[in-house]
Amino acid sequence: MNQPNKLVVVWTNGDKEVAIRMAFMYTLNSKLKEWWNEVSLIVWGPSAKLLAEDTMLQEYVGKMKEAGVELLACKACADSYGVTEVLENMGIIVEYTGLVLTEFLKDENIRVITV
Q: What tens digit of pLDDT does each residue of 12-71 get?
């Protein structure tokens, strides 16, 4: 049996403390310390609005991008909050993510956590 080699963190929480102390810390360290071969962060729901409005969180996400974390955001959510352009300008891939998440969940080589 193969060991999972990809981590996907689905960040849905609109709380800055949760973002910094769990979602971002674990995501970035997972990539930097090579705990996982591949690491992705999906920005979904209220987290899209929080990220678009908070420059400190934007800088943190920039560090993740530099480290090689794949950055995705839910287009439906980003559009509903009016933040699609802000997220795209940060280098985040903004697309409809329902099917993307479903495929991640069905893949035995991927682990998904939701924060």
A: 999 999 999 999 999 999 999 999 999 999 999 999 999 999 999 999 999 999 999 999
* Residue with token string 């287009």: 75
Residue by residue, DSSP assigns 47-113 as HHHHHHH-HHHHHHHHHHHHHT-EEEEEHHHHHHHT-HHHHHHTT-EEE--HHHHHHHHH-TTEEEE
- Please, is 99 exposed, middle or buried when counting C-beta atoms within 10 Å of its C-beta (0-12, 13-18, 19+)? exposed
pTM for this one? 0.95
Strand arrangement of the beta sheet that strand 110-114 belongs to:
93-95, 70-74, 38-43, 6-11, 110-114
- Superfamily grouping for domain 6-114: DsrEFH-like (3.40.1260.10)
Q: Cβ distance 6 to 40 under 8 Å?
A: yes
